[in-house]
Design brief:
Transmembrane segments: 12-29, 49-68, 77-97, 134-156, 168-189, 201-224, 260-279, 299-318, 330-351, 443-462
Shape: globular
Number of helices: 19
CATH superfamily: MFS general substrate transporter like domains
Radius of gyration: 22 Å
Family: Belongs to the ADP/ATP translocase tlc family.
Organism: Endozoicomonas gorgoniicola
Number of strands: 0
Keywords: ATP-binding, Membrane, Nucleotide-binding, Transmembrane, Transmembrane helix, Transport
Membrane topology: Multi-pass membrane protein
Order of helices and strands: HHHHHHHHHHHHHHHHHHH
CATH topology: Growth Hormone, Chain: A
CATH architecture: Up-down Bundle
Helix content: over 70%
Largest sheet: none
Number of domains: 1
CATH class: Mainly Alpha
């Protein structure tokens, strides 16, 4: 057995490396889901797939997760959750993607297209490209189910409020540096293979899938290794009243609705998901007008992944600084950053498509809007993976086992999906009524602004409840020194 200080440092490094590998896999899935689907069907497909495919998948995931959590140990639950992803990726890259045309139910899709209105024919495209649709859902579930739920639940189980305020910013700094590796890796892999091989995109897809599987196996090994460093992870859970972890799924949702503290966390998550979805889908609808092929889009995403990694390093440092001023100040950083970068993006794109703008200025204004939107996307994601996640996870730390397990799973999977689904429903309505996302920019901007205001109000409400748990708002240093 290692001494206490060394054991704690070893556990931190173990968690950091787990997060590093989780984010590499997340970057691979995020790159592939957008490169394969958006370039084929346009960014307008995103609201449809998030509402009609990803949302039911998230509910199914939570049901299965809750079912298994009530019957398996934490160790087995972790493995049973990750293994399906590791099986799916090789099957997709080696069999499904090379045979997309043969696997497409063309007759059914043609029948659907004949009966559906023109603005809803995208739904038949989801069925026609069903392997790409499932890949998109897997990418979304890896981010919420594995990274946000499984990984952070493991970390929260071995943390206290005092240690979380000190270690979480550093953990996100180390973990999110993975994008500095995954971004250039994807970019160089796709560029080299597509430049020297007619079948290069297919080969690069296979390589990325193999990397995904290797990283996943290492994640499982690191989890089991962390149990030797933190005996509390492998200790059986005692079934004592409110610390039990065996509530049914329906009861856990009712518990979430009745707990004001968890309800405030849910509102913050809801605000982020709606705001980022409004800005990101609008940005991608303009981006695909310039980068229209799978390889071009994939290489661009690789570059943006690298820039997001750099942004995460910067935001991790900012997070450590802001935490000195208290939880509330740090939690307000993400919505304020999104407002400062999101509103100029919406204005620039709206101007580029306005009828009174001279035609000679339309294209430069569009490129300016895409550039500002890229800055908004990189800054928002960087803040989300560091500042937002740190403050959110710290809010879970003082809760008991029942609140952590069931409440966190419900918030991360159901509430986040409800936010993305509601925004997707609004976007679908705008696409059907106005024709495209480009024509809906002023509506998207208005919703974006309203939601961020609600988000900031929710941060203030949660901050008051956070203090009632006995934590000092003016700075965690005072509590540590006390």
């Amino acid at each position: 057995m290692l001494p206490g200080c060394l054991q704690k440092h070893s556990l931190f490094l173990n968690h950091a490396f787990m997060m590093f590998l989780c984010i590499i896999n997340f970057d691979i899935l995020r790159n592939l889901k957008e490169s394969l689907l958006v370039t084929r069907m346009g960014a307008e497909i995103i609201p449809f797939i998030k509402l009609w495919v990803v949302t039911p998948s998230a509910f199914l995931f939570v049901f299965c997760y809750s079912f298994l959590a009530n019957r398996l140990s934490k160790q087995h639950l972790f493995v049973f959750t990750i293994v399906p992803f590791l099986v799916w990726m090789p099957v997709f890259s080696l069999y499904l993607y090379p045979n997309l045309a043969e696997l497409a139910p063309s007759s059914i899709c043609q029948m659907m297209s004949d009966y559906l209105p023109d603005n809803l024919t995208l739904i038949s495209g989801l069925l026609e490209n069903w392997p790409l649709t499932i890949l998109f859902a897997c990418a979304e579930l890896w981010g919420t189910g594995v990274l946000c739920t499984l990984f952070w639940s493991t970390v929260n189980d071995t943390s206290t409020v005092k240690s979380a305020s000190r270690e979480y910013p550093l953990l996100t700094l180390v973990g999110n540096s993975a994008s500095l590796l995954s971004g250039p890796m994807i970019l160089l892999l796709v560029r080299e293979l597509t430049g020297h091989n007619d079948n290069g995109w297919q080969v690069s897809l296979i390589y990325l899938s193999m990397i995904f599987v290797v990283c996943g196996l290492i994640i499982i090994w690191l989890y089991y290794h962390s149990m030797t460093l933190a005996p509390s992870l492998s200790a059986p859970q005692k079934n004592h009243g409110d610390t039990a972890t065996r509530l049914p799924l329906k009861s856990s949702f009712l518990f979430l609705a009745k707990c004001p503290y968890l309800r405030s966390i849910a509102l913050i998550m809801l605000g982020y998901c709606i705001a980022i979805n409004m800005a990101e889908v609008a940005w991608k609808s303009q981006l695909v007008r310039v980068y229209s092929t799978e390889s071009e889009y994939s290489m661009l995403m690789g570059q943006l992944t690298f820039y997001t990694g750099l942004g995460c390093l910067l935001m991790a440092v900012v997070t450590m600084r802001l935490m000195r001023f208290g939880w509330r100040i740090a939690a307000l950083g993400t919505p304020l950053l999104m407002v400062c970068t999101g509103i100029p993006f919406f204005l620039a794109v709206a101007l580029s498509n306005s009828s009174w703008l001279p035609e000679a200025l339309s294209a430069p204004m569009l490129l300016a809007g895409i550039s500002i939107g890229t800055l908004c996307n990189v800054a928002s994601k960087s803040a989300k993976y560091t500042l937002f996640d740190v403050t959110k996870e710290m809010a879970f730390v003082p809760l008991n086992n029942e609140q952590k397990l069931k409440g966190k799973a419900s918030i991360e999977l159901i509430v986040s999906r409800a936010g993305k689904s509601s925004s997707a429903l609004v976007q679908q309505f705008l696409i059907v009524t106005l024709g495209s996302l480009t024509a809906s920019m002023h509506w998207l901007a208005s919703i974006f602004m309203i939601i961020t205001i609600v988000w900031m109000v929710s941060v203030g409400a949660l901050s008051k409840q956070y203090r009632r748990y006995g934590f000092i708002e003016k700075g965690f240093r005072e509590k540590e020194e006390g």
